[in-house]
Amino acid sequence: MIPVQNVYYMLSYAFRVLNEQGYKSIETEEFHNVAELCASILTKGVKQQLKRGLGQEYISETKALSSPRGKIDVTASIKNLSMIRGELVCTYDEFSVNSYMNRIIKSTLLLLLKAKISSSRKKEIKKLLVFFGDVETLDIHTINWSIRFNRNNQSYRMLVAVCELVIKGLLQTQSDGSKRMMDFLDDQKMHHLYEKFILEYYNTEYKHLKVKASASMMDWQVDDGFRDLLPKMKTDITLTRGERTLIIDAKYYERNLREQYGKVSIPTDNLYQIFTYVKTKENELVGVPHEKVSGMLLYAKTDEEGAFNNEYQIMGNRVCVRTLDLSGDFQSIKSQLDDIAEKYLRVRAE
């Protein structure tokens, strides 16, 4: 079981804005569940945004107006008898706080009022909702999370990400199609956070390592250049220092090991996957001075299976299969990640 406070630390690496002064008090708060944690992050983030001013964007409006503006819809004006009233149906752009991102935030705040969070937190949310009076809500089941961020709306990136975590974490579809509140963070959502946390930990704490800011893509080393229908190879984390390279594939499952033919073992597809990454990366480095590329399957430790740390030499490459224990204090998590960097890349945190 991951302590809620560790989820906060993982989020603080995944979203660096949480290390700013406005969020510092969260670190000392005690949370009974992840919903409470996300509510705290979101309320503080919204307060910060309100100080800057709610983001606005041009929203397309269609209304019957006595003073025409924008594009006049003559057909609609005749159909609605607007012309008789001395009005014309017009479509125009209005610079408004009723933006899609503000609608996501308002919808999420309203959902949190139904969650198992403290009454004081709910009062805080209700006070914030006053500032969203001109903002409409969304059907939370059909929200489009593919939002483009730019320099003007960058401050919304973390807020929208937490909203997605809340909405997807607090709702679950029943067999009859209805919705109910669920325990926060299933394996799929935790996998993305787990992967992002490990990547950003090394990106933040090891400035002298070459760490990809996002997952790196690899090309299949085919003999004739024909790659049609081949799946994409996307590694989670690639760490490089000098001539040493370590590829980490982060895995977060309810169960890490599988039983086959009466024997417990690493899932075959996971091992094949990391070995393929290692060999492909090594082929990319032909002609460049380098040591053998190493690979690692880094599983989040489960209570049932316990910890393991096995290393294999496979066709000349070092492949490690180990667990990361997320249940202790956060310093122990850092120590485990630091041990990996020191052992495989011979480097210490700055």
UniProtKB/TrEMBL annotation:
**InterPro entries from the xrefs?**
McrC, McrC_bac
- What Gene Ontology molecular function terms does this protein carry? endonuclease activity; hydrolase activity
Q: Which keywords does UniProt give here?
A: Endonuclease, Hydrolase, Nuclease
Query: Per the UniProt record, which EC number(s) apply here?
Result: 3.1.21.-
List GO BP terms, alphabetically. DNA restriction-modification system
Top enzyme class of this protein?
hydrolase
Q: Does the keyword Hydrolase apply?
A: yes
Pfam families xref list: McrBC (PF10117)
This chain's protein is named 5-methylcytosine-specific restriction endonuclease system specificity protein McrC
Native organism: Mogibacterium kristiansenii
